[in-house]
Please model this.
Amino acid sequence: MIDYELVRSRRRTIAIEIDRQGRVVVRAPYNIGNLRIREFVEDKSDWIERTLNRIRDRQQMPDGSDVISTDNPTPLSEADIRTLTDEAKAVIPDRVAFWAGQIGVTYGRITIRHQKSRWGSCSTKGNLNFNCLLMRAPGEILDYVIIHELCHRKHMDHSREFWAEVEAICPEYKARRKWLKIHGDELMSGG
Model:
């Protein structure tokens, strides 16, 4: 049984967040019963355990860095990709809905793919595409990519206005962007 903190609000869906200290927070609407919430947490238990293990591994590193790879990365198998894709399909839509509400934008379809070089994209029609490998990154990095793509609903470029919009929602965006630049190749390569 996974220990978690339950936070109820007017949201429409159930979501799970795990912070850097390994605290599991389940966010749920008022009208969903405790049994349904426990079932949801149980369904996501493999993802929760993997995430908690990554956090514990990082905490045990002598320099305290956020490195999640090994020195000799092993390529991801097709089964790994399928698992990450399924996980992304279960997690990302709820996070997109949450951040779209915070930013005040709408969006179209959400597509999850295994990509070799991109973390996400936003079409002019508002369709969003995300890389399933984001499931291997810390939650705050996933949120940064989602925020980045949703801010393109207001500015379809990387102008000063675009970055100001990102910063208004995610003041730590520069650190998260830097983390992705440093560790992105490791995530892409299966590290």
